[in-house]
Amino acid sequence: MGIPLVAHESDTVPGLSNRILLRFVRKLSLGFPLNNYPLSIQKKSEYTGNPINPCVLEISKKSKDDAVRHFGFNLKEPVLLVTGGSQGARAINDAIWAIKDKLLETLQIIHICGNLDYEKLNNSLSDISSPLKNRYKLFAFLSDDMPQALLASDLVITRAGANTLSELIILKKPSIIIPLPKAANDHQRKNGRVLSDCGAALFIDQSQLTPELLMNNILRLFSDSHLLQDMSEKTALMAKPDSAELIAKTILDVAGVGEVKNEK
After folding, report:
1. How far is CA 225 from CA 59, 64, 136, 191, in A?
2. d(CA 175, CA 167)
3. What is the pLDDT of the chain when averaged over all its residues?
4. Residue of 200, 204, 195 lying closest to 227 (CA atoms)
5. 92-127: per-residue pLDDT in tens?
6. Measured between alpha carbons, how far is 122 from 95 in angstroms, rounded to an integer?
7. Strand arrangement of the beta sheet that strand 27-30 belongs to
8. Pairwise CA distance, residues 102 & 30, whole Å
9. Mean pLDDT score, 202-224
10. Cα distance between residue 25 and residue 48, in whole Å
11. Helix count (H) and strand count (E) of the chain?
12. Other CB atoms closer than 10 Å to residue 200's CB: what's the count?
């Protein structure tokens, strides 16, 4: 029909639809820098980043202190955010729960554990000694408050979904990435390597995850503020806060239409 086609790929590994469409697309916008894709893809692609939730973009302009206060935490002590994605991550939950008492001696923790583990962990909160309970906030899931949790954090332990990593990049957050082992085409492992290979994150394969390994890495990062700052700066280098506008411009360019008008 001669209609020009533009597609977007959020992950480092193209999904089935985009693999089928690749031979037909005029332009492919990519969620990660071009060098993370095969040359056959790079030739017709542009690095736009992934479109970001407007709430995350908005909160990136806000004060971290306000986000820390939102969770009732002390402004003078660091915050660790642990999240396993929308379904939670039992391997991460189990490792964090095993080392929580040691971590809570020096850290404040926001733990988003997912619905499957929430009841079990919530019923075990009495295991945490009274002086430390206010330093640990457990949630099954966060929706409206997720941007606040990201902003409040000094380090994030996470899976490697494209949207999550893109939000970390926008907010310049250092991370420890533990990819989902059975993600389609192993895309989470490859997504995570984008950040770890440039020094923006630490990478732990779930098959090697132990409570001791995780604790040692967490405490090592929090003991070295220069390293955390360096990771933050390297994360920020990949930021594309105007991703949606870049994708729209790509579409209009291919369609032969004029410039995008940004109505803010």
Report:
1. 23, 17, 22, 25
2. 12
3. 94
4. 200
5. 999 999 999 999 999 999 999 999 999 999 999 988
6. 16
7. 6-9, 27-30, 45-47
8. 41
9. 98
10. 16
11. 13, 9
12. 25
The per-residue pLDDT for range 1-56, each reduced to its tens digit, is 678 999 999 999 999 999 999 999 999 999 999 999 999 899 999 999 999 999 99
Angle at 119 between CA 115 and CA 120, to 5 degrees: 115
Please determine, for residue 264, whether its predicted confidence score (pLDDT) is greater than 80: no
**Contact at 8 Å (CB) between 165 and 187?**
no
Q: Which of 116, 242, 89, 244 is nearest to 179 (CA)?
A: 89
pLDDT score recorded for residue 216: 99
In angstroms, rounded to a whole number, what is the distance separating the alpha carbons of residues 262 and 264? 6
Tokens linked to 16? 């089935």
Tell me the residue length of the chain: 264
Angle formed by the axes of helices 211-222 and 90-103, to 10°? 50
Q: Which two tokens stand for residue 150?
A: 């990201």
Going from the N-terminus, what domains does the chain have, and what CATH number goes with each?
A: 6-50+240-255 (no CATH), 54-236 (3.40.50.2000)
Question: How far is residue 178's CA from residue 182's CA, in Å, rounded to a whole number?
Answer: 12
Of 19-33, 84-98, 152-166, 219-233, the one with minimum mean pLDDT is 84-98
**Token pair listed for 25:** 């697309």
